[in-house]
Amino acid sequence: MSDVRPVLRAAFDAVADRYDPFDVDYFQPVGRRVVELAGIRAGDAVLDVGCGRGAALFPAAAAAGRDGRAVGIDLSEAMVAATAAEVRALGLPGVEVLRMDGQDPDFPAGSFDAVIGSMSVHMLPDTGAAFARFRELLRPGGRLCVSAPTTVLTPRPLIFGLASIAKWVTEYESGTRVYPQSSAFGGEERVLADLRTAGFRVAAVRDEVLHLTAASGRALVDWTWTHGMRLFWERVPADRRAEVAADIEAEAETHRDPDTGLVTIPTMVSYVVGR
After folding, report:
1. What are the residue boundaries of the structural domains of the chain, listed by start?
2. pTM score of the predicted model
3. Which end of the chain, N or C, is more open, meaning fewer C-beta atoms within 10 Å of its C-beta?
4. Are strands 112-118 and 45-49 parallel, antiparallel or unpaired?
């Protein structure tokens, strides 16, 4: 498979200033769940691979506490700059954000108690090699937790819980693995084998339902421009974008909750954990 990192870097540089707006709730709860499953404790040193705007980094820093350390790395210079500015604004001395390639993070062996990555690691060109490198960076008893969107294939394909997105992504495949057309990390059997080969003694895959919420179907469509799905939109011909957006918006609106008034869509997320 070709190395898509230059394409990804450009895409995330382009969206860094408006990444993941608050009228759609998805990346934040996934990041918090990654921190929970990694079992991050006070005093831990944590590496967040592909930290983006900090959906997992900031909860990790909170869990590690004043005596801990949280380091976020990202391939996108714009993401690093924006997140580092937020770290400074919040006055978090134990948090650092660095421009670095998640495929092979440049730290000494045994630097961390936990390595995490929320909605990022599945995009690396060689996840098996990345797991081996993460294992080297962990201290004895160290933990790994990474998450990825789960493309549901049966009874019909769904991405973000919507058949319309799956349909259009199939037609205009971006080839980046941002939203996999098959199981993330090559499927459960493959990822567990990769973790064992990398030296993890305990490994598991957990597929969990997350209820994505949006203020409206239109808000959800707008949100898809603010993260990796921008790569999909760039492949859609300009004269068809309105049609595609209307199709996605209409299906999203079928999920409006009459009690809350929010569009609420059950969607699957895959969490890979290792020790």
Report:
1. 5-274
2. 0.93
3. N
4. parallel
